[in-house]
Amino acid sequence: MTMAGNLRKVTGLGGVGGLRRVARLARRRPRVDLSHPARSPLGSSVVNCVTYRDGVRAPHGGDLVDTVERVRKHGHGFVWLGLHEPTNDEFAGIAELFDLHPLAVEDAVEAHQRPKVERYGETLFAVFKTVCYVEHEELTATSEVVDTGEIMVFVGRDFVITVRHGRHGSLGPLREELESDTTQLVKGPSAVLHAIADHVVDDYLNVIDSVQEDIDKVETEVFAANGARADPGRIYQLKRELLELKRAVVPLGRPLLDLADRPVRVIDPEIQAYFRDVSDHLLRATEQIAAFDELLNSILQAHLAQVTVAQNEDMRKITAWAAVIAVPTMVCGVYGMNFDHMPELHWRFGYPLVVGVISVSCWVLYRGFRRNGWL
């Protein structure tokens, strides 16, 4: 049975006709950048569909099915199909056309996957966590610092399918950059996979630099003169956001090493050297995140130590004033007893003498505590 015949069995898109309608809409409507939360004005998840031959973007002609059949007939070039948060129905016809594994399709549609690289026959499936620094005027205990998304990439001999989830991580600028460098695109779909991996890791480093500025501000505040009054919630919030960044960065290390070292049929051997460079950048990002985590632990411990010192200072002041007040309390307590015969009770100068003794004693204690730094 032909490929078109197989597609007629797809119910989600109404067979080939539904898939062709989506492709025609994608061809007629202008390309859009889906970096904002809105979905494509195409009325579907299709963002772009481009054919490349010998590293050059080919004129678009025909729908997606015709384009794929033409590429496979000529035996050179590849198709790059970009999607944004497709539904099961929208992705069903595409999965049938490119013979994608059901498990990979499920991961691509559902999202919330751990970074990984898996092989399904002649197709490579990669998951990348994208990150974006959320700008804020002032860091608070509830500020969002890092926003995450996902990019899934299907790589075959003659196709690349990118599925993006989230409000950021648009691949439009990356596509334009690749099209200006035909020496990379001529190496086929694996060049696109490398470009996406490099783009994602570069974003990691950019976000890490921005997070470092927030950490520096918190560190300066904690070690300032009134550091004990700093809000510990800001430190905990940074640790939570750093954990979110860590979940995106650290798991990608092993898959990148596999792409760099293990031979894969759909990966050009010349591209593997580029994956080693991306892996080195990822290692630097991982080390920086680990260093930030330790630094935040140290900042938090320093803040807690400052709070303890401040509490000890307050307790010393309270103790010193309690000692000063104890002198008049004791004297007044003695002379407040109701005995008939007490010394100086009826003496004319008894009251001034007692007041003078109390004042001198309190002044001596105050001076002593002040000299020792308790007051």
Describe the overall structure:
There is one protein chain. By secondary structure, the chain is an alpha+beta fold. It has helices at 3-7, 15-28, 64-74, 88-98, 102-110, 172-179, 182-185, 189-222, 232-249, 253-261, 269-335, 350-371; strands at 46-53, 56-57, 78-84, 116-120, 123-133, 146-155, 159-165. A hairpin with a 3-residue loop joins strand 6 and strand 7 (159-165). The model is unreliable at 1-43 (pLDDT under 50).
The whole-angstrom Rg is 35 Å
SSE string: HHEEHEHHEEEEHHHHHHH
Number of helices: 12
What's the β-strand tally?
Answer: 7
Percent range for helical residues?
55-70%
Determine the structural class based on helices, strands and strand pairing: alpha+beta
- Please state the average pLDDT score: 80
Strand numbers in spatial order across the main sheet:
2-1-3-7-6-5-4
Ranges with pLDDT <50 over ≥5 residues? 1-43
* Biggest sheet descriptor: 7 strands, mixed
Assembly of the depicted chains: single chain
Beta-strand proportion: 5-15%
What overall form do the CA principal axes indicate?
Answer: rod-shaped
Distance between the termini: 93 Å
